[in-house]
Write a structure and sequence with these properties.
The structure holds 2 protein chains of 2 kinds. By secondary structure, chain A is of the alpha/beta class. Chain A contains 11 helices and 14 strands. Chain A has a 6-stranded mixed β-sheet, with helices on both faces. Chain A is globular. In chain B, helix 3 (68-98) runs parallel beside helix 6 and helix 3 packs across helix 10. The A-B interface holds A 24, 58, 61-63, 65, 83-84, 86-87, 89, 91, 93-95, 97-99, 101-102, 106, 109-111, 113-116, 118-119, 142, 158 and B 12, 15-16, 18-20, 23, 26-27, 30-31, 95, 98-100, 102-109, 264-266.
Chain lengths: 328, 266
């Protein structure tokens, strides 16, 4: 889903220049980050654990002070006008930090009070949001009975209590099953259609592709690539098609025949990968070629580039997940 | 800031403090591991004292309060409020470790309101503890000469004691952010308690404890409770109790707000 028409044509809602955060002890978690997010845009911030994603989000949401550079959110400086920034943003941080001994409704009402809503207003808004995220039935149950997907939906609802113009989501779908993930994506698209600017960190390229207008990739505290998901995907090179044969013994023959469609490489158990600029459009000709040679095909799949592939392409090294703890 | 904007801001912060106090109260009362030390443990001690140690009253220098339970219930209230304060610190450390604290910090609320919400919630727990412990003491034969006024003053001192303990718990939790450290502070509650005349009059403490009790503000609060309950200046000055209680609340809450600012800055 590409909506880059929105990027760059509106005033920047998030502006970051030379942002730095050096922790006591010298660890440079954010090292000169520059970025601009236009109003109404969804910006995906990608990187492995320890790259500096969460530290950047904590600075932009006023939870941590930068040690250098400037950052403005919704027109306010995150250091000098922190209170105004907090009034303008909704925040759903990693791991959906929710009190397990409170109910969904109580948490929403508390969040309403924290944002200055009076009690009746807060109750009404909680009911609206519970309906919006489909948690009406579970509203009065303690959080320790909620599933991961329900907690994430409630977390999102809490971030929306005061109708923020900018939403920060730190790895909103990590650990969710595909159904919950897809439901959350659809809610985020709806919010964006209503005009909310979304800044989203993720480890999943697929998530960025599904949601983001533009993506920034961060590694060791620096932005190493930025563009639309399609532009970043293209950095990996031509898309791959994985072909699995029923008879492994025919792979040598298939390899010679398929060379006319692109560069062929061997995979385990009689599988082949064909890299071709046509991508999924090459499936039909490939199957036809094999069919004419009476080579039976078990499966053909488009191989989507992963964050790891993009990382390798832009940094020259693989994303070493978990090799360095994210500091914040 | 105009006076209207200031009033509006104060009203908003008032709502924030009330909502956070409500949350503190509700969650603490839902947590069994909180109810046990804060309510049951002091009650158990009170029951043991009532049944087996009343001979302490026969010691020379022990003031006349009718029954030993009547004398010692102020110490029981103090024990309960100190443990409630420690539980407040544990709850804050849990919020920090679990990430809920970031949610509070990312909202447009004054840092002091976050501390005061927790302190107010704990003060209300202190009130509940005082009412419960005084009722049990009455049932066990205590006779409070200070009447209703004395009981009300004692409940207010209990609220101050719980608030000061919550401020101290919050300070340590915000400085360290460590749940396990907070959970290991239980013995220090008893150090504070036994370096104040909680279960014995100051004159019967050994010289070292008696010297320490002079600088322990809890001494004046517990004696103030006794002075109020028995309407006796000889047992303790109510005003000194309030002065020590209010002073402790101001000091510990200031330290807690300072600890929070320092945590956010780092």
């Amino acid at each position: 889903m590409q909506r880059d028409d929105k990027a760059g044509d509106a005033e920047a809602t998030i502006e970051v220049e030379g942002l730095e955060r050096i922790y006591p002890g010298g660890l440079r978690a954010v090292d000169g980050v520059d970025l601009a997010v236009a109003a109404g845009e969804i910006y995906g911030f990608l990187g492995p654990n320890g790259a500096g994603k969460s530290t950047t989000v904590r600075i932009l949401t006023t939870l941590l002070r930068p040690t250098g550079g400037l950052a403005r959110v919704a027109g306010y400086d995150v250091v000098k006008q922190a209170s105004q920034v907090r009034r303008s943003i909704g925040v759903a941080l990693q791991e959906a930090a929710l009190d397990p001994l409170m109910t969904g409704r109580e948490l929403l009402q508390l969040q309403g009070a924290l944002h200055g809503l009076r009690r009746p207003e807060s109750k009404l808004r909680a009911t609206e949001l519970l309906e919006r995220v489909d948690l009406v039935v579970a509203a009065d149950r303690l959080l320790n009975t909620y599933s991961g997907g329900m907690r994430r939906r409630l977390d999102l609802a809490m971030a929306l209590v005061h109708r923020p113009s900018v939403l920060f989501l730190d790895e909103p779908t990590t650990g969710l099953d595909p159904v919950s993930r897809s439901s959350l994506w659809s809610e985020l698209r709806k919010l964006n259609d209503e005009g909310t600017t979304i800044f989203l960190t993720t480890q999943y390229l697929e998530e960025a592709e599904q949601l983001a207008d533009r993506v920034g990739i961060i590694d060791h505290g620096k932005i190493v690539a930025e563009g639309t998901p399609q532009e970043l995907g293209r950095l990996v090179g031509e898309p791959g098609l994985y072909v699995k044969l029923i008879d492994e013994g025919q792979s040598e023959n298939a390899r010679e025949l398929l060379a006319v469609h692109g560069a062929v490489s061997d995979r385990a158990a009689g599988g082949l990968t064909i890299r071709t600029a046509l991508g999924a459009r090459a499936i039909a000709p490939i199957v036809r070629t094999l069919d004419e040679a009476q080579i039976e095909v078990d499966a053909v799949e488009v191989e989507e580039p992963t964050l790891d592939d993009v990382f390798l392409a832009v940094t020259g090294h693989r994303a070493e997940e978990g090799s360095e703890e994210d500091v914040a | 800031m105009s006076s209207f904007a200031m009033e509006r801001d104060l009203a908003t912060q008032g709502r924030v403090i009330t909502a956070l106090a409500e949350r503190a109260l509700r969650v603490q009362l839902r947590r069994a591991q909180f109810l046990l030390p804060s309510f049951l443990l002091p009650l158990l001690l009170l029951a043991v004292i009532a049944s087996g140690t009343s001979a302490a009253q026969q010691l020379p220098g022990f003031p006349s309060t009718g029954s030993y339970v009547g004398f010692v219930v102020s110490g029981t209230i103090m024990q309960g409020t100190l443990l409630a304060g420690l539980m407040a610190g544990i709850a804050i450390a849990g919020d920090i470790e679990g990430g809920f604290f970031d949610r509070l910090l990312s909202a447009p609320v004054h840092r002091a309101s976050i501390v005061l919400g927790r302190v107010l919630g704990t003060a209300l727990i202190g009130v509940a503890q005082a009412i419960l412990f005084l009722s049990v003491a009455l049932a066990l034969g205590a006779d409070f000469k200070g009447g209703v006024i004395g009981v009300l003053l004692t409940i207010m001192l209990a609220a101050l004691s719980a608030s000061a303990a919550a401020g101290l718990g919050a300070t340590i939790a915000l400085r360290t952010g460590s749940l396990s450290l907070m959970q290991n502070l239980f013995p220090f509650v008893f150090v504070l308690l036994f370096t104040a005349p909680a279960f014995f009059p100051r004159a019967l403490l050994n010289p070292v404890l008696e010297t320490i009790s002079v600088v322990n503000p809890l001494s004046y609060v517990v004696e103030g409770m006794r002075g109020a309950l028995f309407d006796s200046a000889a047992l303790g000055s109510v005003w000194a109790g309030f002065a020590a209680g209010i002073g402790s609340v101001v000091l510990t809450c200031t330290l807690a707000v300072w600890a929070m600012r320092s945590r956010v800055r780092s």
